[in-house]
Write a structure and sequence with these properties.
Elements: H1 13-24, H2 29-36, H3 40-53
Helix pairs in contact: 2-3
Length: 61
């Protein structure tokens, strides 16, 4: 297969909120994945996307 892989289920705002809450509570990714009915890889991929969207602040000199 060439090109990008087909996307899975879309993330909802509520799922992203739950993901952040569970991470803040100290839960591990495999447990979060089970609770959200997603794969661990999907959780890691979403975290990368979330952190990439954060505003970039200029570094201090």
């Amino acid at each position: 297969m060439t090109g990008p892989r087909p996307a899975g289920r879309r993330w909802t705002a509520a799922e992203e909120d739950k993901l952040r809450e569970m991470l803040d509570a100290g839960m591990k990714v495999p447990n979060i994945a089970r609770k959200l009915n997603r794969t661990a890889q999907a959780i890691y991929a979403r975290l990368q996307r979330i952190y990439r969207r954060r505003p970039q602040f200029p570094s201090r000199p």
